[in-house]
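Good morning,

Both structures are done.
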Amino acid sequence: VQLQASGGGSVEFGGSLTVSCRASGIRFSDGTMNWYRQAPGNQRELVASMSVAGRPRYEDSVKGRFTVSRDDAMNLVYLQMNSLKPEDTAVYFCNLVTWNRSDWGQGTLVTVSS
């Protein structure tokens, strides 16, 4: 099983960026998919999730700005991030939790400049 996140980069305040996560050896539709982020000096925090049924949930600070989606045909998940703020700067990780395992991607860095 392997998860690989990509799409990070640098963007200015108010800009948009979409990060994605590809899975091999497992299907995102088999579990709960989570996007976490970790800023320098901070703990890793959950920002968005999608259930097996495709129901999204968001942490309060990103509601209305971030959208999580899943492409079951391509076995990809996306985190579309709009109206980005400097406090969104972090390494973003994808995580898939099934009934018997939890797998992580390697993280992709998002930097938002003011």
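Second structure follows.
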Amino acid sequence: QVQLVESGGGLVQPGGSLRLSCTASENTFRFDHMAWFRQAPGNQREFVASEFRNGDPSYAESVKGRFTIARDNAKNTVSLQMNSLKPEDTAVYYCNAIIDGEPYWGRGTQVTVSS
């Protein structure tokens, strides 16, 4: 059973930056797809960013130009660099991986953007 563990969340002021990291318990080289999702209180979980094995990234319109996803198969991690944060980015951020067609989720890390 693959385990994904997120880290790097916290409280940041509007306009600030945070870097989230997700570490996998297995070699990510064979993972088809790695992604970040988020869920704000009262909302459904939504897509944030993803990167396929071939390295092509994809972003939600709301974070384009501000967030950057990056896989590091040598370290079994996927990171999410978040810049120019806004209060509406406040949510629990979840790491997701697709392995042989099966989805795996981390437990999430809280990001709060507030002054």
